[in-house]
Amino acid sequence: MDIVHRYGEWIKNKLPDNPKAASRYIRLGLRLESFAKRHLGDKNVPLPYRDLNCLALDGMLHTLEHPESAAWTNLFTPVEILQNFDLTCLSIEMMGSFLSGFTIEDWCIDQAEAEGIAPTLCSYHKAFIGAVDAGLIPMPKCAVTTSIVCDANLQTFRYTADSRHIPTTLLDIPNEKTKDSLAYVVKQLKDWIAQLEDLNHRAFDLDKLRDTLDRENQSFEAYRHFIELTRTRYYPSTLTLQMFVLYASHLIIGSPEALDFFKRIETDAASRPVFSGKRIFWLHVLPFYEPALKHAFNLSKKYQIQATDMNLDYNLPLDLDHPLEALAEKMVDNIFVGPLDRRIDAERRLIRETGADGVISFNHWGCKQMAGAANLMKKALSDTGIPYLILDGDGIDPRNSPEGQIKTRLEAFLEML
Ligand code: SF4
Known about the structure:
Elements: H1 3-14, H2 19-40, H3 47-65, E1 70-73, H4 79-84, E2 88-91, H5 92-101, H6 105-114, H7 123-133, E3 142-146, H8 153-160, E4 168-171, H9 179-200, H10 206-229, H11 239-251, H12 256-270, E5 278-283, H13 291-297, E6 303-308, H14 323-332, H15 340-354, E7 358-364, H16 368-380, E8 388-393, H17 403-416
Parallel strand pairs: 1-2, 1-3, 3-4, 5-6, 5-7, 7-8
Bound molecules: iron/sulfur cluster (SF4).
Iron/sulfur cluster binds next to helix 16.
């Protein structure tokens, strides 16, 4: 048993009777991991990625140590508004991934199922629910989620936060972009801001939001240029790092730290050697623990995961003159919102822009939207002529990822490429 699993076992042993001690172990583990990554990190990993890794670890630690200034969110929450009140974000996907990193996701998932949560619920949600109910995650100042794409979010937030009287906001995002639908979302944002003003005893600062959106625009411009550069440049990465990019592109987007990260990868990529291997465009979450995938992609010179659709779900410039309208448009126009045809068109455009040689679509256990969309997308995108592989598994729980099947199918796919 390696040290990570042994550490996970200690936490699991403490969890039933002493969740406070288990939580202390988690925080200590995050501190040690951040120290190790900062001082002993793999030099083959580009420095901006290593720094992003530390940033995400420190961000996670902060939400656990200072729950009074933390908000629970989903990936699509307009975090720009929470930043206005200096609140840090903890998303369900992020928490689930960290639990998996500690190898304690199985305990949390089993705990949720033992309480009566359906086994067919997405594992990120089950792990989150199990960890909250076990007392591993302290209650935040507030919680906010959107109805975008995920059928589990609303219920999980009602169950974990609202039922415990944490101020909870559910943003309802319409499927169609019309003048009325945008106005409907803006109205919800204004109501939510008023609640946050009451909760934080301070006024919302519109100019501060403009600065945030300005940095966000610059970040996505730099990211787009980075993606363009990686059509020909070798930029080593790992499955885990691709998930960490979600932290920058969603949970801290608009912050100076996120802008710094995107500018640095842009500059760094320009000086990298030419890449002559195969580029993969990834759809949905990445199972960063999966042995065959790690072997194929982590720091590989033959196959490069260039981008994931989740990191590029909205990347049009935001209108600084109308910041709330811009945020409403960002949510309504997200590629995961609305009929599948919209998403297929967006994926087709992204595949073309990234110049990918192959597409891997990951069917994460319990994710209804992906289970419903994967085959239809494969069929619709066959006109691109780019090989498309669907892998079934679980983003965080190895028990739901058939190792042998993934290995066989992946190897055949890469050989074909
Ligand atoms: S994987 Fe699917 S079900 Fe799970 S959180 Fe993401 S969108 Fe929701």
